Amino acid sequence: MAAPLCVIGAGRMGQGIAASYLIAGLEVSLIDLKPRAADEQARVHDAARAAVRAELGMLARLGVLSEDQADAALARLRLRARDDAAADLRAARAVFEAVPERLDAKRDALRWLDEACPADAVVASTTSTFLVTELAALTAHPERFLNAHWLNPASLIPLVEVSRGPATRDAAADQLLELLRIAGKTPVMCAPSAGYIVPRIQALAMNEAARMVEEGVASAEDIDTAVRLGFGLRFSVLGLLEFIDWGGGDILYYASRYLAGALDPRFAAPDVIARNMEQGRKGLRDGQGFYDYAGVDVDAYRMQRLEQLRDRLALLGLLPRCGSARDWAGAGAGAGAAPAA
Questions:
Q1: Which CATH number do you get for residue 9?
Q2: What is the pLDDT of residues 222-244, one digit of tens each?
Q3: In this structure, which of 96, 194, 277, 315 has its CB flanked by the most CB atoms within 10 Å?
Q4: Which domain holds residue 182?
């Protein structure tokens, strides 16, 4: 029986996607598209199998799965070359394209899939560079084509950013979303826009962190500590827009105006923040902001988010400790207290 899932491209991303579905229990064909001599093809396949084995072994060491489960998952992997993948592709319900980020490589892969795949198979590119509208123009079947941007490490990170083209059928989009959820992934939809969601946000944050080192604002170590224990912890519980609603869009507006004047115009708030203020949509205290809180038990909602934060702090051993100042206070009393009369 041919594999129900095919991954085109045996590099790092293709290996991670394959590992995700092997763990989920599917048979996966990992297909190396580049024409090679037989001995070179064997070496490439051996290296790919070893890399997937290492990925599964890492997950076993982390306790995500047992050694037996890792072995069983690896047994579901099928390595194919371009010339011997036809049967697998004819039976495939879905194909992930993960060839190198070159337009010529994408064009070759998509044209090949046009001929090799059944008409009802969904084809998703994992590109982080090209818009879905650019790549859809390279296939004869744009109605079944989408982008599915996985984040590394693909076998662990649950988020996948999905972008559909103007010709993409609803059925194809629904099928891809279902397939991602089968692997335990959480898909989000994104319009055809450079940088998707996460890369666009993180590029700004990473550049700003590097700029602060360059300006001597703080050391790399202190900036990273601030990100891990302040920025990262809070935003692992509250999304950025949800966080705006918690504090109030007006707070962001005035803080942004100050930073734009003190540092650079790039810190100015977008127009939507001012419009929300004008419309009485500043966030939780108005009952609406980026989200509508009508009918929401705000106290219960706040408590739920704080409990999630507490759990993350507990996992890191960072919860406030009752009585933690006793040793300091006692030492201070012994060293600095006035002598008894």
A1: 3.40.50.720
A2: 999 999 999 999 999 999 999 99
A3: 96
A4: 5-189
